[in-house]
Amino acid sequence: MKRKFFSMMMVVAMVASLFAGCGNSTSTTSTSKTDSTATSGSEKAADNKSSEDKIKIAVIRNLPSDDHTKQFLDGAVSEGQSLGYQVDTFISNGDDAKFQELVAQQIEKDYDGFVISHGKAEYSTEMLQPALNKGIKIVTFDTSFKDGVIPEGITSTAQDDYSLAKLSLDEIVARSANKPARVIKLWYGPGVPPLDRREEIYKQYEAEGKIQTLELIGPSTLDDVQGEVSSRVGAILAKYPEGSVDAIWGSWDELAKGGYKALQEANRKDIQLISIDISNQDINLMMEPDSIWKATAAVDPRLIGMVNMRILAKKLKGEETPQTYDLAAHLIKQEDLNADTTMDTLKQVVPGWGESDAFNEPWMDELRSQNGK
Q1: Buried b (16+ CB within 10 A) or exposed e, 63-77
Q2: Which residues does the annotated region (Disordered) include (predicted)?
Q3: Domain 161-298 sits in which CATH superfamily?
Q4: Helical H segments across the chain, by residue range
Q5: What is the DSSP letter of 113?
């Protein structure tokens, strides 16, 4: 009996040992074909990365889950996955405290790289320094830093916001018979880097006498941008009889959608809407019968996410990257669109839309081929 008992205990011990060993390798990721990318890139020792591990990227954005955010995240995720990476996304709905908490939480995890979107100058430098100290590679989008100094090792990207503002405001001036053009301005800030940059150009146009601001309207928070802007625009329209306003300028398309709703509800066909940024919802509104949404200046938000991921991939591989990079802007007019136009087909009517080889490398194409992308 003693011998049988001893044999049974040995079997139990072996089974327990087997499960304990499995518990240390419960990763849900499969074998990656990007080990050369991982081992030649990060400052972490190459030998510390298992061949069973994928490179892990966190994309953290400090804005609501609007159309622009969804497309940006889709671009980053699809490009990262095409290179064999695991990409996780996080949004903080414009809550700066929550955003900083999200970043701090991911720093404590085993991420190799971050794409950080819409951090503010008062905290971004301190927020990201622990990640840099840990060897995490970082690319930021529309993020400001203390005293305007970008920390060493970070690439800071943006839309060409100055061109976006110029294209949209030039369109207002061109469409207006009055000089200066009389404008209801939709804006939110200060403290949102892209909107602050657009504001610089707006003030320049004001100073040059090209535009006259009748009203400045914006939301108090980012919780219900469209609803709040719609209510505020609707409340002031009665002050301005037909023909007394040339255009509404939406410095961000979420603001513009609120303005559009207010104009529709008030049946104000005499005021044109010109905006910045674009989405499928925007295109649909621009294509409605007798729509007053006449034009928008934009960069493909999906392409922004893709280009940010490519820059991060180069950092992970140890390749040289610039300190800053701006993505080119396009003007999209209502008359350019047709009934079949979507974000996916916009390139058919707007030359160059959504296309860029920026930071793409032959080794990335090889990885996409290996990953069936």
Answers
A1: bbebbbbbbbbebbb
A2: 26-49
A3: Response regulator (3.40.50.2300)
A4: 2-22, 35-41, 67-82, 96-107, 124-133, 161-175, 193-207, 225-236, 253-265, 280-286, 301-316, 362-370
A5: E
The CATH number of domain 35-159+301-327+357-370 is 1.10.1040.10: no
Query: Can you list the alpha helix ranges (DSSP code H) found in 212-345?
Result: 225-236, 253-265, 280-286, 301-316
Predicted model pTM: 0.77
- Chain region(s) in the chain for CATH 3.40.50.2300: 35-159+301-327+357-370, 161-298
8 Å CB contact between 111 and 58: yes
pLDDT bracket for residue 52 (50, 70, 90): low
Return the closest-CA partner of residue 189 out of 217, 158, 227: 217
**Which H or E run includes 338?**
none
The SS3 of residue 184 is strand
Amino acid at 272: Q
How do residues 233-258 score in pLDDT, each as one tens digit? 999 999 999 999 999 999 999 999 99
